[in-house]
Specification:
Rossmann fold; alpha/beta; 31% helix
Length: 205
């Protein structure tokens, strides 16, 4: 499918981004990558699998590099300014899509950024992949109209099922939890299973 390299206007300047488009989109998804200080960027394999699922479901996909990553301006801000980067990406997506549903997806560090951004600018649906609850703050609530889905592996040491499931079920609008058998935090060898799970979420949501 065709894609376009785009420059978003973020709070600290340019945000490097990639927009993949389908011929007759029924919405757009914004994808947030894992931790910048551990090699995370918009080309992460987990985001690639998620994007493939979303494109197959008829959604345009916008991936971007947080500040200080790749050709994005600025520097790492300990997860504070990065939330503003997500909001800038969401604003761009909404300008492009003319009112169609907006999905927001984040993986690991990106899940925390997506969670925080969703509380300020609620998307149609929110997908959190391997949210590291023990390492980052996932407190607060979202508007009840936001559909929340959590994807994780049963061998994830950073997002253990025993911690994530009770948190997800205790939310004001309980999140649907999807557990991939045999998957760790990095979903090694689980790309196809991850893609299938994201497709199932989009069908249900």
């Amino acid at each position: 499918m065709p894609h376009t390299n785009v420059d978003l206007q973020g709070p600290t300047g340019r945000l490097e981004a990639r927009l993949d488009e389908v011929s007759a989109p029924r919405g757009t998804a914004v994808l947030c990558h894992p931790h910048p200080q551990y090699g995370g960027n918009m080309h992460d394999s987990v985001l690639t699998s998620a994007a493939a699922a979303m494109l197959a479901a008829g959604l345009n996909c916008l991936r971007f590099n947080f500040r200080g990553v790749g050709n994005s301006d600025g520097g790492h801000d300990e997860g504070n300014g990065e939330v503003e980067d997500v909001l800038a990406a969401m604003a761009f997506a909404r300008e492009q899509q003319s009112g169609d549903p907006l999905w927001l997806l984040g993986y690991s560090f990106g899940a925390r950024m997506a969670w925080a951004a969703a509380s300020q600018q609620p998307p149609h649906g929110l997908i959190l992949i391997a949210p590291p609850l023990g390492l980052m703050d996932f407190s607060g609530t979202l508007p009840p109209q936001v559909g929340v889905h959590v994807l994780l592996g049963d061998r994830d040491d950073f997002a253990p099922v025993a911690s994530v499931r009770p948190w997800a079920e205790a939310l004001q609008q309980p999140a649907a939890v999807h557990v991939l058998d045999g998957a760790d935090h990095f979903f090694h060898g689980q790309g196809e299973a991850l893609e299938d799970t994201v497709k199932a979420v989009l069908v249900s949501g």
